[in-house]
Structures are given as structure tokens and as C-alpha cells.
Amino acid sequence: MILNVLAVGDVVGESGLDCLERRLRSIKRHKDIHFTVVNGENASGVGILPRQAQAIFDAGADVITLGNHTWNRLQIADYLDENPYILRPANYTSRVPGRGWGVYEGPRGLRIGVLNLIGRCEMDCNFDNPFTAADHWVKNGGADVILVDFHAEATSEKGAMGWYLDGRVQAVWGTHTHVPTADAQILPKGTGFVTDLGMVGPARSVLGIRPQQAINRFLGGLPQRYEQADGPCKLNSVCFSIDTARGVCVAAERLDIEE
User: Fold this and answer.
1) What does the mean pLDDT of the chain come to?
2) Structural element, H or E, at residue 244
């Protein structure tokens, strides 16, 4: 069968949540989506609260992935232990709550594995090596299809991960930088890849925040608590179509909506 997987970029703030709630189900119906993964680590601006995670599930997500802001809202800790459908990066140390890998039932009994990883280039380096962590879960995860959300700053690190896993997983996508890249593609051995999905949040912004606040930072102004920008929102995502019989991705299509 052809399994259509929708990967949705970082949800930013309450307006991003609202946009997801209004738009996600219509995209899923239009593209006959079977499985949806949404990155939710910025749902609270920085971090995510349990009620916001539930809102993402209610909007139509099957799995939520996170990133470097996982612990900015410590209220999520117990939720991560209790709910197997929300993942934090697998290469955090084993001392933190939650899990970074899950296997979920798809259509026709298909076992869909989702792996959440975090990069180390230009990030807090207190993480295990994401490449060796990927090796472990790809080898031992017990899934028919494997999807990887690589939450990383450097496009080079994200690109290297895609090529490293080419032919061993069905899709790799980057998150974290909130800017959609134009390189959705099928790598030579059949893995779908895009450097960054983008985000769900205010379109007229700098990564979701008020532009003047970003300008203030680069001009050396006093630190400010970031505020979400006003105005219309956008939803950035990519649909990966996977031939489950051959274990390869056959199409990677960017699906972007601007309100």
C-alpha cells in the first residue's frame, strides 16, 4: 500500500494552535493522510503544557515530537511518562522523563516507528550522539516503517542525518529553525527527506515572534520576554508517500498554507 505521512512543523504559541485546529483535518482529508506527526515544542512559546498537547491531538495529530524546549514547561514531565504518543528527543540522557521512540499501529496492522532526535551543532551539547542513537533504534526498534524528526540548528547536520539514514528509514525531516526549506526530495536509496518543515504560527514574524523584538536583540538592546507576533498564520508541512511493500518513499510533497 501507499502510506501517506504528514509531518507538520513546529507549532508556535496559541495562534499556531488555533491555526492547526482549523486547518489540519482539512489537509488530512484532501491528501488522504494515514498518519500525522506534529512538532509541538513551541506550543507555549517555549515548551508545551499538557493542555496544549491535548489540543494538538484533538486537532488531528497521531504523535507529537518535541525538542530543545521540552523542559521549559516542567508541567509536561508526568504527561511524557503517561502518554506514549508524545516523544521527547531520544538522545537526551536516560535520567529525564518520557521516551524518544514509539511504535504505533497504522493501517492494515502496519507498525509505524517514530524517532525523535536532537542535534548537537550550535545547540546545548549535553546530548548523546544523535547518529549513534539513530543506529540503535533503527536496528532494535521493531517497526515496519520508520519516521525521524531531527530537531537541529545546522542545516548541514540535518542533511548529514538524512544521508546517513538513507535506505534504512522511510522519512527524515528537520525541525527547530521554523523556516521551510525548498529541498523536499527522495534520496538515492529511497528515504524521503526535507531539511526543515517550517512552522505553524504567525506568518509576519521572525520565527513566530514580534519582529521588533528580534531586531532589539541583534541591536544589543535589553533582554525582553518574547511575545508572539500578531496577524495571519501559516501552516508548513510535508507529505511523504511511502510504498510499504518496497519500504521506500516514493513522493515528498510540501504542503504549505498561508492565511
Assistant:
1) 96
2) none
In this prediction the pTM is 0.96
Say if CB 6 and CB 33 are below 8 A apart: yes
Query: What angle is formed at CA 235 by the lines to CA 229 and CA 237, rounded to 5 degrees?
Result: 140
176 in active site: no
Looking at residue 25, its pLDDT comes to 97
CATH of 2-258, one of 3.40.50.1460, 3.40.50.920, 3.30.420.10, 3.60.21.10: 3.60.21.10
According to DSSP, the residues that pair with 146 across neighbouring strands are 113
Tell me if 173 sits within 8 A of 202, measured CB to CB. no
CA distance 184 to 229: 28
Instruction: Print burial letters for 186-209: b (CB count within 10 Å at least 16), e (below 16).
Output: bbeebbbbbbbbbbbbbbebbbbb
Dist. CA 228–CA 222, nearest whole Å: 18
- Indicate the residue type of 80: L
> Residue 239 forms beta bridges with which residues?
6, 253
Q: DSSP E strands: which ranges in the chain?
A: 2-8, 10-11, 35-39, 63-65, 86-87, 101-105, 111-118, 145-151, 171-175, 185-186, 192-194, 199-202, 233-243, 248-258
80-139 pLDDT, tens digit each: 999 999 999 999 977 899 999 999 999 999 999 999 999 999 887 779 999 999 999 999
The interaxial angle of helices 13-31 and 50-59, nearest 10 deg, is 20
The residue from 69, 151, 176, 178 that is catalytic is: 69
Q: What whole-number percentage of the chain has pLDDT above 70? A: 100
